[in-house]
Amino acid sequence: MSHKAWMKTVPTENCDVLMTFPDTTDDHTLLWLLNHIRLGIPELIVQVRHHKHTRVYAFFVTATYESLLRGADEIGLRKPVKAEFGGGMRSFSCEEDYIYENIENEFYFFTSQERQNIIRYWLENLRAKQGESLHNIHFLEGQPIIPELAARGVIQQVFPLHEQRILKRLMKSWVQAVCESQPLDEICDYFGVKIAMYFAWLGFYTSAMVYPAVFGSILYTFTDSDQTSQDICCVVFAIFNVIWATLFLEEWKRRGAEFAYKWGTLDTPAESIEEPRPQFRGIKRISPVTSAEEFYYPPWKRLLFQCLVSLPVCLACLSFVFLLMLGCFQLQEFVLSIQELPRIIRFLPKIVLAIIITACDEVYKKIAYWLNDMGAW
């Protein structure tokens, strides 16, 4: 099934994250992963579903309210505090859960994206034990299992389910609304702070562009046709843009800090050290820093690959495009030099060039992905 079809397929109300598998997945793989999830993350509730037409298996993952509270404590999720306890935002603590707003209502305390973030955190931190393996996949001790299986194609997709009720409300108040302010708080609750901050900046930038647009239109209207008047107006407009850009940046710093404080990310600590990406390959060694087993790829091998493979391939692709462009230009001149040809034939070189560029774009995209994966090991 397609990604969008899965997102609209919700067989149970209590489903936050969906994990799908290729139709070739065997029972041993499903049982192995299901057993590891249930033993390694007892907080999760996993239901197995099978689509009879596509023969695709999927795990519908959720958690109880009590488990989500413990997860919020574990990841330090920031939640609003009741006014009688000081207000503001504070990292959630199960020991003082009574101080947080809406703690008594399990349907309103967590937003959908907060539930999904907690579950995703648990799934991504399911670690392998020493010597564990699945078929030809051998895990290092402490290596995250889910990202590795997703990178190997064992897991097809892991994504959150949408809530159609909230999406319809956002469609009316946000997408279809005209000349109305964006519902940034609702966007933050549903999509998270990063998405909300992006659209907050986009809206602020769009509004701020009104000033140079109006000022530039006025200058253009009252500018004479002589060169001296046009030069003076260009200088004035350039000075205005410098002042406008400075004020825009300073005002956005203030506005962004307000949003960050309001959404509880102003004093968020720096993110912890990220795990190596699952596509990373190398030889096993003992880390001289942590004394733990890790994958290591020598820098000289990476440099050798870049010089002997990446650079020649890139130069060959650029040379091919350049020669192809010259060939199309020559063909265009040749076609235009023949007056007897029909008018539609004169557009043939441009059509050929457009088709070849489209085909090359797909080929070069695959080459770029391959070079990125190989060269960044």
Automatic annotation (TrEMBL):
Indicate the family of this protein. Answer: Belongs to the anoctamin family.
UniProt-annotated location(s): Membrane
Q: Which gene encodes it?
A: Ano8_0
> Is Transmembrane among the key words of this record?
yes
Entry's Pfam families?
Anoctamin
Q: Source organism's superkingdom?
A: Eukaryota
Q: How does it sit in the membrane?
A: Multi-pass membrane protein
Keywords annotated in UniProt: Membrane, Transmembrane, Transmembrane helix
Question: Which Gene Ontology molecular function entries are recorded, alphabetically?
Answer: chloride channel activity
Q: Identify this protein by name.
A: Anoctamin
Give every Anoctamin transmembrane domain span.
Answer: 187-374
GO cellular component terms, alphabetically, are: plasma membrane
Which InterPro entries does this one have?
Anoctamin, Anoctamin_TM
Q: Which chain regions cross the lipid bilayer?
A: 198-220, 232-249, 303-326
- ATP-binding is among the record's keywords: no
